[in-house]
Amino acid sequence: MIRTISVVMVVLMVSTCIESPTTNPAHAQTAGPTRWAIAIHGGAGGDPSKWNDEKRSARREGLEAALTIGRDLLAGGGSALDAVEAVIRSMEDNASFNAGRGAVLTKEGNAELDASIMDGRTRACGAIAGVTTIKNPISTARLVMTETKHVLLAGPGADAFAASQNVPLVDPKYFLSRRPGRSNSSTDTGQDPHFGTVGCVALDSAGNLAAGTSTGGTAKKLPGRVGDSPIVGAGTFADNASCAVSGTGVGEEYIRNAVAYDISAQMLYAGLSLESAVTEVMTERLKPGIGGLICVSHDGQIVMQHNTPGMSCGAADSGGRFETQLVLDNGGRPESNDAADDLPVAGHTDDADETAIRRLIDRQADAWNAGDIDRFMDAYWKNERLTFVSGGNVTRGWDSTRDRYRQRYPDQEAMGSVAFSDLEFLRLDDDAFQVLGVWTLKRDDEDLGGRFTLVFRRQPEGWRIVHDHTSVQNPQ
Ligand code: ASP
After folding, report:
1. Which of 22, 132, 189, 197 is catalytic?
2. Which of 135, 206, 348, 368 could lock onto 337 through a cystine, CB 3.0 to 4.6 A?
3. What's the CA gap between 277 and 265, in Å, rounded?
4. Tally: H helices and E strands in the chain
5. Which residues, at least 6 apart from 157, have a Cβ–Cβ distance to it below 8 Å?
């Protein structure tokens, strides 16, 4: 009997520390002193050590000026939304950045600007795309949010809307000005086509989050091309229950992966910390060299990461932090478990694949301990060729494995709580790992334990268990 039960349990595998799911943000705010936090970016891309001094200092000064505006606003009790708008306006007016005045040009040599803003309190949002005459796209995006029932206006209609709102308009030539350290010709940026977009995320002292992003897009883009910056959920997202996010990089990849929303969803649905969610996206979903993210969580944690050689960015908070950078150490990723106090895995290493598998195992245990067999099954290869071996018996296929679990573990009491330890990773090839480990299961009436061997293969949807062999320590 015990053997039969434990056989099934072993499939569970491994987990050591499980993060608690995001809790009530209002509680988080009232538990400590009033706090605010802000992060900004001025684009991810090439290596700043290869820039000339003029360009480096222009970028640094632009970041510092923008961050100062945001810090002063928030420290004075201003709203996150106002801070985001004011910070981005300042960078739009600074030709060192690829937004507003310094926007890069299309293949045909024109500027087509995109921007979006989101209010984490209500999930209200506004965006404009492909505009050609608006001096500060972020402010018009905010007007789309507050003055229309729409979310996104594009092209001539968006320019006309801006005119109707009496916002400052400019001759398109305004965007053709030169900026420090580089020319503004459409042939200038071929080496570094994704650079200089601006963004801001903020938490105000009332506990509200906001996010915004503004860009000229990618250099030499096709006329009409729209990137992720004005797409809520891709380049920008804010929700008071989780976090505020602004991205920069290859917009098409951010759209394909719904990056900004995914960070929030991982916090809410998988219970990940902001740092774990960002690390996962930057190391697993996005290929190296794609871009960066700035985020702030509902409880004021700031996370900034990039997988490009550099990202202009800055952060400030009510604890006195105020810093700007052109490159983050290790791309902003935690160096070790010590550095990330809530990474959901033990023995974190720099091997991104190993880390991904550890997280998968951790989430699987989390699901089990929450009584959710369906979510637990997500780690398995959804294929008829999945094999699960235990006590000399073979169960074949994802459906049969799930049915077996459901039958043997009809409720949470039967499932008990599982923990995993002593994981040993053996890479078999680029796309396969063998993982050995020890499992223990506690239930009201008995404690169980044993060993397991898992084989993981990289599938198009991510790492999945393709084979699971489990055994019991002391079968009775
Ligand atoms: N994400 C922007 C876009 O694809 C560009 C960038 O961030 O550099 O339009």
Report:
1. 197
2. 348
3. 9
4. 13, 18
5. none
Determine if ligand 1 sits within 6 Å of the CB of residue 194: yes
Nearest residue to 211 (alpha-carbon basis) of 186, 181, 187, 235: 235
Spacing, Cα 291 to ligand 1 middle (Å)? 8
Report the atom number in ligand 1 closest to the C-alpha of 98.
8
Instruction: For residue range 295-327, list pLDDT tens digits in order.
Output: 999 999 999 999 999 999 999 999 999 999 999
Under CATH, domain 28-333 is a member of which superfamily? (Glycosyl)asparaginase (3.60.20.30)
Q: For the residues 177-184, what does the mean pLDDT come to?
A: 50
pTM higher than 0.70 for the full model? Answer: no
Distances (CA, A) of 327 to 59, 185, 196, 359, 396: 12, 26, 13, 27, 49
Contact between residue 194 and residue 291 where contact means Cβ atoms under 8 Å apart = yes
| Per-residue pLDDT band at 40 (split at 50, 70, 90) | very high
Helix axes 80-92, 53-75, angle to 10 degrees: 160
Active site residue 213: no
Whether 248 is in the pocket of ligand 1, judged by its Cβ within 6 Å, is yes
pLDDT in tens, 203-240: 999 999 999 999 999 999 999 999 999 999 999 999 99
Which has the closest alpha carbon to 127: 258, 235, 35? 235
Instruction: Decide: residue 348, CB within 10 A, 0-12 exposed, 13-18 middle, 19+ buried.
Output: buried
CA atoms within 13 A on the CB side of 241: 13
pLDDT at 419: 86
Domain segments of the chain: what residues? 2-16+344-473, 28-333
Which pLDDT belongs to residue 34? 52
Second-level CATH architecture of 2-16+344-473: Roll (3.10)
Residues making up the annotated binding site are: 225-228, 248-251
Identical topology for domains 2-16+344-473 and 28-333:
no
Adjacency order of strands within the sheet including 113-119: 152-154, 124-131, 113-119, 209-215, 198-203, 37-45, 310-317, 322-325
The alpha carbon of residue 470 and the mean position of all alpha carbons in its chain are separated, in whole angstroms, by 35
15 versus 71: the higher-pLDDT residue is 71
> What is residue 18's predicted lDDT score, i.e. its pLDDT?
28
- The rounded mean pLDDT for the chain is 86
> What's the CA gap between 273 and 276, in Å, rounded?
5
- Ligand 1 atom nearest residue 221's Cα: 9
Contact 197, 312 (CB under 8 A): no
Could you tell me which residues come within 8 angstroms of residue 183 by beta carbon, excluding any fewer than 6 positions away? Answer: none
Which of 237, 248, 259, 312 maximizes ligand 1 atoms within 8 Å of its Cβ, making it the mutation to test the pocket?
248
Asked whether 214 lines ligand 1 (CB < 6 A), one says no
Phi, psi of 94 (to 5 degrees): -105, 115
